[in-house]
Each structure stands twice: as structure tokens, then as C-alpha cells.
């Protein structure tokens, strides 16, 4: 057991530290707070800014992506087309007596899990929080828990329900609530059947109140809508990716679980536009040997949670992961997560089950991070096919396509429809429009059938949307024939691979993965944030307030500022140990101590947060070491190899 | 006349360039757009990110401010307390026939200005767009313009109205509309009287629909609400500043003027908390000799627009600017604006008139930038006194104060109120609360009067808010006497100095200040963005697609990436001149050309955008020169002094 694991993890201690050091706090706390809304204080804000900066360099700069900043206010029509108006919702149940509102799937989950726990206890089995390392685990307080033994059959039923909890419709949930007699867990009172609740925040744009709008639920739509402009900006070259970093909103029914489930959150999303006929990636070779932990559909469907570890190269070549571009991004996501402090042993890629995945998606994997709340979905990585561009194009009649010159012109011999418009109008009158539209929008396959019908019977008889009864089109009015043409250009709607990051969830997970307490004193907590993303890199500590030391403080801070290393000076009268402790909680990786030897020979001591090891060197050498370790990813051992180890007597007390 | 001014500025050309190069575009354009909403494309997004980065370094890092990131969703109560629910509104007039809605003050302004223009024309005077260099000038299309001569008296009246246009109430505006017979300018149809329209976007938080919220109209409130936590984070040290960068929202009645008046915008705000008894600033000496252009209240009230130029030191010592801290920030704002490309000759500080300024503010200056729309308010710099902390504290009963140990304890001899609560209840019944509250909240001055009344008449007779008739408190129930206490601590509510930046407006103004066309060909536009904030720093141009040159492209791009200099490669077949032209429009300050000499001796050519001057040197020397000029603020002349001037024959053709 490493020393970092000597003191068991406590979520309470972590939350106390994060609040005490103002990483974040409930928003509007002096007004009683609003659940699901949080403010980031100075260290949280700096940590977030560093993660955004790392993300921008890792993805946007490294891959030459086109960053856009689009509006959060979004008109109704756009989100109607994208499907959010109809489908971005959860089911809720009201308790008419208390006025409480429950999210139906969470309610069923909590109550059944509590009953299973009670059953276990009644059977004399050990019930531990740690046992429930389930991806869907959340904080729960179900008051009805009694240690009641259940029928074996019922236990199996409950377990089966819990395994499928993400896939139930509102009706299903209502039936389960009725069948298992689920009530308000706090009062035992009855609940109304589930009703649908759209999770978008609604508002009115402009003074008339007639233009309905929403706060965006994701940044993706703004990128899709700008596709044509982005393609032009990219000189019509494919593939390319756009990216966006910004706030999105989700009006959660009853948010809990701190930063994991909030109503306003920072997202970073990439939309990589690719030719559907070629999803290879030019840089795949660079990452193909990276090993990841997978939880594929097949394993989940077999009722197991066992991870499959293999290289992304193997995962793609075996078709477990659909294509190279999707695999490339999964590897890049993994590299990013490790860079900012995620524990590789607590990161897995879970494939979506068929009932979770949108009908149009061809594959989808979530990067999940393990926390005290279970495995948490932090990054989604989906192949959304041509869905988004197609629906917006259909709705607006704007072409959202790529025209790619063919290497060699090709002959096509397609069915084409030739309508005699002069006769069509008088015959069909008001139906002429719908009938024309219907006929011109048929696929090649359908046209082949219609051509045959026309040849065989001299007419087409068909139903047409928006027209009553059957429509009969005689052959005098229409021709459907194969026509040979030479094409020089292939026109296609690009597919979209979408890596989508919930930065708040990642931030919280990194806090959990970085938090530990010193074995010698469990009240001394440490946040081992990587130097690259730590809010402050260096704490400058003068040993005493003696005026001889003062000039060295500004000498050091000037050097640090020049090296772009954010620092804080702590010249308080607290002991050195106390001052370091405070900064261990803030995740500050380095401490520079100024003492009376500094006055003599310009040397200072550098302390490393996690090991509390110290080295001594000239001011320049020390600042250089810190810079190399922080920004070039060099290890402490290597970065300080040329410096003198420094034995301390009692400074950490 | 400098060569940059040789071709007259054209807003149309600028807008075409900004759209063609996708700096920004109307949001949801393929859906027909929504007025007042814009998306930033890749160069706009990068430019904005660089400005934010510069802002963060210039203010937050340089001054060690505490950055916070607070939520945009804000509950009703908070904005009710801050005054926004009641006062953050404009007046609008409806045309019931057409459904159009007009912002009342803009309507009056537009129509009167159009009539004055018509009058001028009728008098045979020259009417030029450029003549109206008025801060309030906006794009206007008033169809009723006829060249009708007006009475001299009416002209004077109109001019007086226009000078006071920002100060009118809704009733005033209604009276003016009636008096001057102002109708729908497009149709001549009648308008309804002005009604108030709150400019905040409203929404409901949570599923019950009962928690009313708004999108924040500014980032300031989130900072005020966290004051106590920030003070604690700062180890109770004063003064200190918090800062926040984020989107805010304003539901404009009828937004026009492009990026200048939008419904969703990026703000950067600082709240500097200061002791009301000491508004000096420790670093004031560093900036006191900086000269600014002022438009103080006195000059405006005298009907003049003439700027007063003096040092900020003189402005503060003469009390034209209220205090050192306010003056310090004005100077720092000016330095920031110049750094990112504002023309110093088109930047002024305008003091608010008494009818513009909030009643609690002790002084307020706007940094205004001159554009083709007139002088535009881009940064507000206000001393908001203790207003915000006081109202939130009063509403929530949370103490938002600073406790400062006194250098020496002091004796105070204040009046104190001692109420006999046992007798108060029976005597005043339901009024006991209001009467107690009224008496305990009196100032020292009022208590002195009440004590005298009590001594003289044996009772207090007074009106109490919320209580009918007069209240009589006999001396048996109350004592008001001086009590001597020793105070060791002074408790005070800090005052707030608030510099508040509208980044979108600044960005647009910088575009105007940077835009010009080459005299030799007015279709060749240039955006002279400073290297520090330019979206891309270097364009890499191989002279031909010959394979000998290819290895040098990656050699150069690797060197640029290592030096953190964003670049683009243009290896298209367009002429060098055309490739440079494209990048002149994108504001790219440097071009590096690879030619066949590069293959021989590893040398490349560096071209400067504005002068089109070129120098030649080794790859390392050239990259170093670019880095120094971009990030260290060194001039082109100095940064390339050691390199060989390079004469071109025809590359710019």
C-alpha cells in the first residue's frame, strides 16, 4: 500500500477542504443557495482555466481545429430540429401533499437499492458503501430502509430492473412504481404517475415575447449551424474539426452529487467532420499502441463489469471500436485525462448499450472516471453519422455538404423523374405541390419500382403524405427512366465524430483522484494536482520577517513572474509547517524557502509537495527546475538531479 | 496624411472583410438569424481569446486579483435586491398595426436628428455623415426625411432634447412623442405610449416553475455575494480586488449596430474593495504621469465636447477625478486598451452627468472609443460606494463588512437606545416590531434629537413606517443616553471601485481602428492588429510546391510551435501576393517565405504586414525576432536590426 492510500479516502474531508480553500461554493449561499448552481473561487477558477488551457493546446492547437464561440441563447426552431424540444427530458413524479418532485428513474433506483441493502442486512451479509461500485451510484437517503428479507425471486427482479434503469420509458417507470409500491421515501406518501419534463431552460427573446428560445443544452448545435462557413474557411479541405468551449445548461429535476450534477456547466466539444466512406485517421499510427481499459457492449450484456484491456489498435482492427477516427479520439481523450491528473486505474471506456444510443449513432463510448459516487460519465465520444447536418439541412433547405472532386470522372446511370408540369397543375390542383415533392424525393430503389409499375400498368397509384386517398399519375404526365451522366464530383454529407467533455465532472474526479492525507497526521490533507494544472505553482516562504530577507522575496517573485509561474507569497507569522500544510490543501506543488543562508550565497530551498523532499540551489537553478517540471513534463527526480539534496530537521512540524 | 489614411474608411468594406474571413457572423444565419446574436468564427474566437488572455495578465496577474467564475442563472431575489428587477429597463412603443416595437429614446433621437438633417438640407447646408460625431450616433433609416426647413426656435428645441436624451423618463418620452408628432418612421402610422420593458431574460429554475430566475445582466453580483469568502481567502487583508470574465445578457428591444449592441456578450469586471476612509492606491505613483483625454461633467454641461488633456496625477489632485484608486484604474484601462490596438487619438474618458449616474455612485467615468457609429462606451469605471454590499447585507442579514484592528484603541461616547421590551409588547401589540426597528435604526444625529425630546417632554412622538398615525413612546419605556465604550476594531462596509469591460464593443472598435486599405490598391484591405493579440502570428509560405521545399515547412512549423507562436501554412497555388493579401485581411502580422535559397543556406525571408518590409536571416534568428516582437513588445525596427534587409522585386503583385 502506497503512503498515499494509508489514510482511507473520505469524501467529507475532501469537501471540507474544497470549501475551506474556496475551490468552489454553492452559488447564492447568503440567499440560501439554489441547488445545482456553484461558483468557483480563486483556486477553482485558476484550476479550471489551466484545464481549459491544456485542453486548447492538446486538442485545438495540436490538431489545428477551428475554434468557434457561439451563442447560448438558441431559438426554438433550431432545437426543435435537433430533437431536443421533443427528447431532451426526464420523467418526474410529484407528491401532491408535500409538493416534492422526484426524478422517476432515480427514485426507482434509490428505493430498490435501499431494499436490496435491507435484504442483505437481514441475511446477515456485510453492507459496505464500497461494495456498490456501480456506475450509477449516487448519494441517497432513503428513510424507508428496514432490514427486511426479500424473496430470492424478487431480489433477482430488482437486480434486473436496476441493470436496465437507463432504458425505461415514462410508462415503464410508472408501471414499476405501481408494481413495487414505491412512495415518497421520506414520508411514505403516494406519488402521481411520471410526467415528462423538458430539461432546457426556456426564455423569450426580444420584447414581443413571441420568439421562444432556450439556453443551449450543448455547444454542438452552434458548430453544426456554422458548418458551411467553417468548410469555406478551411478552403473546402476535408476532414476537419471545429471545437467550442463554453457554458451549457440543463434544468435538472433535483440535482444532487455536488459538481457532478449541476444546472450550469462548462463543456468542451469537438465536432470532427469526416467522409463517411473513409474514417481512417492520418495520425492513428502515433497512438495505436496505447493500452486502454474497455467495457464493451458484449461484456455488459453478459451481466459483467470486467474490463478488457487492449491497445486501441487492436480494438479498432477487431472492430470492437467502429473506426480509426473514433479510436484516435478515444486515445487522445485518455492522454488528456492523464495529463491533468486522472488516475489511469480509475478510467475506463464504456460502450453504450443499444437502448442508450441514439438511433442514428453508429458507435459511442463514454470515458468514465471512478469516484466515491461510482463510475461517472465524463467524456462522451460518439460517431453521430450524418444526422445533425442532415436534419438542419432538411429543415432550412441549406446545402450542408462537401463536394469532392473525383480522382476519375465516373459514369452514373440513375433513374430520373421527368414531370410534365403544365399538365400536373390542372390535374392535381392544390395537391400538385405535395405530389411533385413526393415523386422527386424517391430513392433510386423506389424509382426502379415506380418505373416498373409505370411500364406495366401505364400509371402510378400511390399514397402521398398530405393528400387524401390514393393518387393516380398516368404515364402521359410522368417519365421515369435511367439517364446516363458523367460525374466529376462526389457530393456527400459528412459524418461527425463528437468528443464531448463535461469539464466540471472531470474537475471533481481529479479532486478525488488527487486527494489523500499524510499517514503521520490524517488531518494533513494533500491535493496532488499535477504542476501543469495546479492553480498556483509556487509558494514563496520567507523563514522570518527579518528585513534582511525582504529583498529576496521580490527578487524571487520577479524571476517567477518572468518564467510565467503563478506564485503566492506567505509571509505570515505561522510556522513553516503550517504554511506548507495550507498550500498542500491548495495543491501547490512547490515551495521556495528563503532563509539566512540565502542572504549569504543567494541559494534557496525547493520543496516538493507530495514527497516533502527538498533540494538546495541558486535562485536561477531552482526557478529553471520548477519551470521544466511544470511545463515540460519532466519528473521531480530528473528535474532536480543537478541540485543538492537538503536535509531538514523540523520544518514540517 | 499617413499612408494608412489615404483610402477613406468604409464600414461596408470592413464588415465584408470581417464576414468573409469569418471573424464573426450572425448566429443561426441558416435559420434566418436572430437579431443581436452573433457567433465568432476561428479568427474572431482566437482574437477574443488573446484579448481575454492579455486582460487576465494585465489586471488579474499583475495586480494579484482573485478571479471567480460565478453562475449566469440568478434567482429573482438577488436581482430584486440589486435593483435590476425594478430599474434595468428601457421604454418601448408599439405600433399596433404593424406589430413593430421601437425603443422610445432611440426613436425620438432618430426622428429629431432626421428632421434636423432635412432642415439643414433645406437651408442648403452640407449634410455629411462625418459631421455627426456624436457619442449617441447610431445607424438610422428614417423614411420620413424630407428636406423641410424648421423654425429656428424648433431647431434649438430639438437640439436641446437631443442633448438630454439619456435622462428622460418614460413619461417624458411619451410627452415628446406627442408634442413632436412622432410616428412609425417607416409607415407614418401612430404609436402607443411608451411602456417599460425589463431587459433581463427571464426563466424558471427547477421543475416546479416556482423559482423565478434571470440570466445575469452583469458579472458583478456574483462577486458581491462571495465577498465574505473572498475576504477570508485573502486572509482578511484589505484592499483587494476580485475579477470575473464571462457572458452576460441584455434583452435589447431592437438591437442594431452589429457587435456594439447585442443580446449576449462577454464582460470582464473587476470589483476593487477599498476602505472608504482611504482610497489612496499604493501604485498610483507608477502611472501618475500618464496623459489622458478627459471630457468632464463641467465641459459637457457647458454644451461643449472639447477634450481636456492632462495627467491622471493632475486629474486626481485637482479633484476632477474623485480619488487615487479610481484614477489608478482609469490609467490601467488606458494602458490595456492601447496594448490591444486602440488608437490613442480615438479614446477619451467621459464623466457621467448627474442624471446618468446612479444615486449612490460617487464618481463614474466611461472609456469611450470613437467609431463610425460615434463615441462608444466600452469600459465603465465607477466608484459605487458601499451600495451593493449594503443592500445584500440588509436583505440577507449576513454581515458583509471588514473588521480592521485600530492602531490605538479609541473611546467612543455614542448614544444608545435601551428599550423596555416587557412593557413594549403590551403597549404597542402588532406595532411593537416596527416601532422597535425604527428606534434602533436611528443615526447618532437623530438619536441626539430624540434624547432631547425625551428629556424635555417625557416622551417621543413620531411617525413610524408601517404604523398608522403618530406613535407616542413615554420615557418609562425607553432610555436614550450616551454610553462610553472602548473600541479596538473599526468595522466598515468597503466601498467598491468597478472597472467593467464590454469586450465585444472593444473588439469591434479595435477592428475599426486597425482597418485600412493600401493606397496603391483600395481593394487590398489590412487589419493592423497588434502581434500580441493577432489571431495568427505567422503565415508560412513556400514559394512553390517543389518537393525540395517541403522539409523546411515542417522544420519551420516545429520551431514556431515550440516558440508558442500560432501560425498557418498556405501552400496553395495562389501567387505569393494573393496569399499575403488574404492574411493581411486576417490581421496576420508576419509572413515567412521559403524559397530555393532556403535549401542552400537555411535562410528565410520575414515580411512585416503593415510596411511590407522584408528581412532575411537564418530560421532561428527569424523565429526569435518574431517572438520578441510579438510577446516582448519590441518594435519591428529594433527586433530586426541585426537581420539583412531584403529587397523584393515583384512579390507583392
TrEMBL record, chains A, B:
Top-level enzyme category: ligase
Superkingdom: Eukaryota
Protein name: glycine--tRNA ligase
Keyword field contains Nucleus: no
Stated role: Catalyzes the ATP-dependent ligation of glycine to the 3'-end of its cognate tRNA, via the formation of an aminoacyl-adenylate intermediate (Gly-AMP). Also produces diadenosine tetraphosphate (Ap4A), a universal pleiotropic signaling molecule needed for cell regulation pathways, by direct condensation of 2 ATPs. Thereby, may play a special role in Ap4A homeostasis.
A single Gene Ontology CC term: mitochondrion
Annotated GO MF terms: ATP binding; glycine-tRNA ligase activity; transferase activity
Family label: Belongs to the class-II aminoacyl-tRNA synthetase family.
PROSITE patterns to which the protein is assigned, alphabetical: AA_TRNA_LIGASE_II
Aminoacyl-transfer RNA synthetases class-II family profile domain ranges (all copies): 200-519
EC number(s) per entry: 6.1.1.14
Pfam families: HGTP_anticodon, tRNA-synt_2b
Subunit composition and interactions: Homodimer.
Keywords recorded for this protein, A-Z: Aminoacyl-tRNA synthetase, ATP-binding, Cytoplasm, Ligase, Nucleotide-binding, Protein biosynthesis, Transferase
Catalytic activity: 2 ATP + H(+) = P(1),P(4)-bis(5'-adenosyl) tetraphosphate + diphosphate
Compartment(s) of residence: Cytoplasm
InterPro entries found in the cross-reference section: aa-tRNA-synt_IIb, aa-tRNA-synth_II, aa-tRNA-synth_II/BPL/LPL, Anticodon-bd, Anticodon-bd_dom_sf, Gly-tRNA_synthase/POLG2, GlyRS-like_core, tRNA-synt_gly
Protein's GO biological process: mitochondrial glycyl-tRNA aminoacylation
Alphabetical list of Gene3D superfamilies matching this protein: 3.30.40.230, 3.30.720.200, Anticodon-binding domain, Bira Bifunctional Protein, Domain 2
Amino acid at each position: 500500500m502506497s503512503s498515499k492510500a494509508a489514510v482511507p479516502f473520505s469524501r467529507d474531508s475532501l469537501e471540507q477542504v474544497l470549501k475551506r480553500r474556496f475551490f468552489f461554493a454553492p452559488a447564492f449561499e447568503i440567499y440560501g443557495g439554489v441547488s445545482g448552481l456553484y461558483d468557483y473561487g480563486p483556486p477553482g477558477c485558476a484550476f479550471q482555466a489551466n484545464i481549459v488551457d491544456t485542453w486548447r493546446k492538446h486538442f485545438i492547437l495540436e490538431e489545428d481545429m477551428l475554434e468557434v464561440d457561439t451563442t447560448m441563447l438558441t431559438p426554438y426552431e433550431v432545437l426543435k430540429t435537433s430533437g431536443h424540444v421533443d427528447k431532451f427530458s426526464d420523467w418526474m413524479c410529484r407528491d401532491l401533499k408535500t409538493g416534492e418532485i422526484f426524478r422517476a428513474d432515480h427514485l426507482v433506483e434509490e428505493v430498490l437499492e435501499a431494499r436490496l441493502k435491507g435484504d442483505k442486512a437481514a441475511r446477515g451479509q456485510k453492507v459496505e458503501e464500497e461494495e456498490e461500485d456501480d456506475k450509477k451510484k449516487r448519494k441517497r437517503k432513503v428513510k424507508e430502509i428496514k432490514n427486511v428479507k426479500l424473496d430470492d425471486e424478487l431480489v433477482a427482479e430488482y437486480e434486473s430492473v436496476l441493470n436496465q434503469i437507463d432504458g425505461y420509458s415514462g410508462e415503464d417507470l410508472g408501471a414499476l412504481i405501481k408494481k413495487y409500491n414505491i412512495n415518497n421515501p421520506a414520508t411514505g406518501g403516494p406519488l402521481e404517475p411520471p410526467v415528462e419534463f423538458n430539461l432546457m431552460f426556456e426564455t423569450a427573446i426580444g420584447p414581443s415575447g413571441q420568439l421562444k428560445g432556450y439556453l443551449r443544452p450543448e455547444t454542438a448545435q452552434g458548430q453544426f449551424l456554422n458548418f458551411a462557413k467553417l468548410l469555406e474557411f478551411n478552403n473546402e479541405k476535408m476532414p476537419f474539426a471545429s471545437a467550442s468551449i463554453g457554458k451549457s445548461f440543463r434544468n435538472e429535476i433535483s440535482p444532487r452529487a455536488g459538481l457532478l450534477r449541476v444546472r450550469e456547466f462548462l463543456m468542451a466539444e469537438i465536432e470532427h467532420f469526416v467522409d463517411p466512406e473513409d474514417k481512417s485517421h492520418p495520425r492513428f499510427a502515433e497512438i495505436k499502441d496505447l493500452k486502454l481499459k474497455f467495457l464493451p457492449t458484449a461484456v455488459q450484456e453478459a451481466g459483467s463489469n470486467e474490463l478488457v484491456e487492449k491497445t486501441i489498435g487492436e480494438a479498432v482492427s477487431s472492430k470492437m471500436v467502429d473506426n480509426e477516427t473514433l479510436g484516435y479520439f478515444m486515445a487522445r481523450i485518455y492522454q488528456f485525462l492523464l495529463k491533468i491528473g486522472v488516475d489511469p486505474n480509475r478510467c475506463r471506456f464504456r460502450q453504450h448499450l443499444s437502448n442508450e444510443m441514439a438511433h442514428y449513432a453508429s458507435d459511442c463510448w463514454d470515458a468514465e472516471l471512478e469516484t466515491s459516487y461510482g463510475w461517472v460519465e465524463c467524456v462522451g465520444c460518439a460517431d453521430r453519422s450524418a444526422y445533425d447536418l442532415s436534419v438542419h439541412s432538411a429543415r432550412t433547405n441549406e446545402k450542408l455538404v462537401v463536394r469532392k472532386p473525383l480522382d476519375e470522372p465516373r459514369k452514373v446511370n440513375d433513374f430520373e423523374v421527368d414531370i410534365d408540369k403544365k399538365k400536373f397543375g390542372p390535374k392535381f390542383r392544390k395537391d400538385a405541390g405535395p405530389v411533385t415533392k413526393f415523386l422527386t424525393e424517391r430513392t433510386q430503389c423506389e424509382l426502379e419500382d415506380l418505373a416498373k409499375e409505370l411500364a406495366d400498368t401505364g400509371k402510378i397509384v400511390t399514397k402521398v403524405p398530405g393528400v387524401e386517398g390514393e393518387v393516380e399519375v398516368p404515364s402521359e404526365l410522368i417519365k421515369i427512366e435511367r439517364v446516363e451522366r458523367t460525374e466529376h464530383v462526389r457530393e456527400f454529407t459528412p459524418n461527425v465524430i463528437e468528443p464531448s467533455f463535461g469539464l466540471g465532472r472531470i474537475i471533481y474526479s481529479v479532486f478525488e483522484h488527487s486527494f489523500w492525507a499524510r499517514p503521520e497526521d490524517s488531518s494533513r490533507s494533500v491535493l496532488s494536482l499535477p504542476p501543469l494544472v495546479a492553480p498556483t505553482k509556487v509558494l514563496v516562504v520567507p523563514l522570518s520577517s527579518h528585513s534582511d530577507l525582504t529583498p529576496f522575496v521580490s527578487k524571487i517573485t520577479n524571476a517567477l513572474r518572468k518564467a510565467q509561474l503563478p506564485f503566492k507569497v506567505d509571509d505570515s507569522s505561522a510556522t513553516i509547517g503550517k504554511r506548507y500544510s495550507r498550500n498542500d490543501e491548495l495543491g501547490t506543488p512547490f515551495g521556495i524557502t528563503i532563509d539566512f543562508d540565502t542572504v549569504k550565497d543567494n541559494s534557496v530551498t525547493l520543496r516538493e509537495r507530495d514527497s516533502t523532499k527538498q533540494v538546495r540551489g541558486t535562485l536561477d537553478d531552482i526557478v529553471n527546475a520548477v519551470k521544466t517540471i511544470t511545463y515540460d513534463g519532466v519528473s521531480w527526480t530528473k528535474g532536480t538531479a543537478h541540485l543538492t539534496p537538503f536535509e531538514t530537521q523540523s520544518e514540517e512540524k
